[in-house]
Structures are given as structure tokens and as C-alpha cells.
Amino acid sequence: MSKLKLGVPCSGIKEQIEDAEIPCSCEEEAMAIAVGTWLAGKKPILYMQNSGLCRVVDYALSLYKPYEIPLPKLILSIRHKPYHHSFCGQKTRNLLNLMEWENVEIAEQQIK
Amino acid sequence: MGKRRNRGAADKMKRIDAIKQIMDSVDDELVISSTGKISRELYNIKDRSANFYVMGSMGASLGVGIGVALHTDRKVIVIAGDGDILMSLSTLVLMNKLKLPNLSLYIIDNNCFESTGGQKTCSDAVDFTTICTHNCKVMKVEATSSIIPRIDMPHKDVMRRFYNEINK
Questions:
Q1: CA B102 → CA A109, B31, B97, distances in Å?
Q2: What are phi and psi of B75, to 5 degrees?
Q3: Among A12, A79, B46, B109, which has the minimal tally of Cβ within 10 Å of its Cβ?
Q4: What is the ipTM for the molecules in this complex?
């Protein structure tokens, strides 16, 4: 296993994650397993919906940053609809900037 | 009432003895320990390059252990507190699903968040070994208010040393 894809699925990225093997129950879990994967010398890839990105802020800032572990490549869907996604959707790019997460492949839902 | 409580406490070992007992049988295993006093105590008992101390990031230790164990043939041991495991209980379910032969988990259960002042957890309402029947052992220990020095090694040194230990 050279590259491990870890995360929680979203319909917006389902084609990109067809080869994911480990069924994570929440995004923090994927973030933690990705740390162990990186420590073992492999490059994990994370995937999640932007709602999940809100959940992993602590691990990004208090696990990855202090140990100087690079944030992995992230496949991220940004949803704006239905209404309950709209607030998170507006904030997602700011959130990525806040965490200094640069290696991100975004699949964004059309706002209209 | 008081006597019963005292007898109950006497039945439980101290956390330091639980960790010593685990480490007595450790040879070249990779050991990952959870946040709070468990990592501090492990650092003071037996610091080694094959130890990875998760300082902060409550709930992360077992996930880190799974990630390491997936990619090495070496044995991996996670030593975690009850609060740490409860915070990401789904990872215990994942451990039971994956059944990685090289991964073992010791849950040091003092039924409280000791490093924040001994507030109760709800670990007394669950048998972790029924959630994960694979290589999972619970060690009930007494709650104390012992003062254990913080780990004085920088996070990045803990990381680099552990990384080099696996990838040498």
C-alpha cells in the first residue's frame, strides 16, 4: 500500500474516492490515521466534505503543526446547498487559509 | 461505606505500575501513548526512540497507532486513557474491524479526566473489550492527583526520532 486514501465520503467527490479502503467514521479519525501513515514513511491522501473540515481544525493546529507533520493532500468537496450547507460553504476557503492547508483539490458545488 | 470505597481503591493498581508492567514486556515494539499523564508517565518511566507521545490532540492516539500498524511489520502498542478512547470511540470500532495482527491496545482506565482535575468520564458505563475484541486490554487504575513533570522534549524531536526509528 503506497498511498492510502482516508476520509469520510461526499457525493461531490465520489469518483475520486472509489479506491478508498479504510472506512473512517469521522474526519478526525482519518486525520489521526494519516499521521501514523506519514510517520511510517507513506503519503496518505485525505478526503472529506467541507462540513468535515470544521471538525478537524484542532488536529490540524495541535497535532500536525506542533510535530511539523505536513498536512496531506486533501480532496475536498465544498457544498452550498441545501440551506444547511450554505454557512459552512461560505467559510470554507477562509478555514483552509486559517489552517494554511495548501495542497487541496476542491470540487465545489455551484451556488446557484 | 468508607471502608468499601477504600477496599475498592486498594484493588486497583496505580497507573505508573500499569505502564511499567506493559513496558517490562516491550522489546522493539513501537509505542504510541495518549495525551495527558499517560505520555508524561511513560516518558519518565522509559523514554525511547520507539515511543511517540501524543501531547494534546485528545482522541488521536489509537488512530495514529492504526496508521503506523497498517504500514509496518513491527508490533505497535497503543497506551491510551479512557477519556482519549471515549473521545474517538469509533476508532475502537475500526480497530475491531481491521483486526491488525501487529496492533495492541492497552486502555488505562481511571474513570476520570485526571490532568484537568479528576472530573469523571463515563467509562464506568462501558466495557471497551466488548466493542473491540481484538488485542484490547483494559487496566483499571486508581485516580490520583499526582504531579508528573511535563515532557521536555520538543514535539518535532519526538516526531523526528520516531520517524527515523521506523524508516531507518
A1: 42, 12, 14
A2: -75, 140
A3: B46
A4: 0.95
Question: By the 8 A CB rule, do B37 and B166 touch?
Answer: no
- Residue range B78-122, pLDDT digits in tens: 999 999 999 999 999 999 999 999 999 999 999 999 989 999 999
Q: Which whole-number Å values give the CA distances from B11 to B7, B16, B111, in the listed order?
A: 6, 15, 15
Residue A86 to residue A80: CA distance in whole angstroms: 4
Give the separation between CA B85 and CA B127, rounded to whole angstroms. 12
Pairwise CB contact (< 8 Å): A63 & B54: yes
DSSP character string of A31-67: HHHHHHHHHTT---EEEEEHHHHHHTHHHIIIIIHHH
Q: Interface of chain B against chain A, CB under 8 Å?
A: 32, 52, 54-57, 59-72, 88, 90-91, 93-94, 97-98, 155-156, 158-159, 162-163, 166-167
Query: Grid coordinates in use for B21?
Result: 508492567
Q: Which of A84, A91, A89, A83 is nearest to A108 (CA)?
A: A89
Q: State the residue for C-alpha cell 493532500.
A: A73
Residue A50 CA to its chain's centroid (Å): 8
Give backbone dihedrals phi and psi of B149, rounded to 5 degrees, phi first: -60, 145
pLDDT tens-place string over residues B33-49: 999 899 999 999 999 99
Map residue B127 onto helix, strand or coil: coil
Could you give the CA distance from residue B130 to residue B150 in angstroms, rounded to a whole number?
33
- Within 10 angstroms of residue A17's Cβ, the number of other Cβ atoms is 18
| Contact criterion met (CB below 8 Å) for A38 and B166 | no
Compare all CA atoms of chain B with the CA of A6 and give the residue at the minimum distance.
B67
Does a cis peptide bond (omega within 30 degrees of 0) precede residue B101?
no
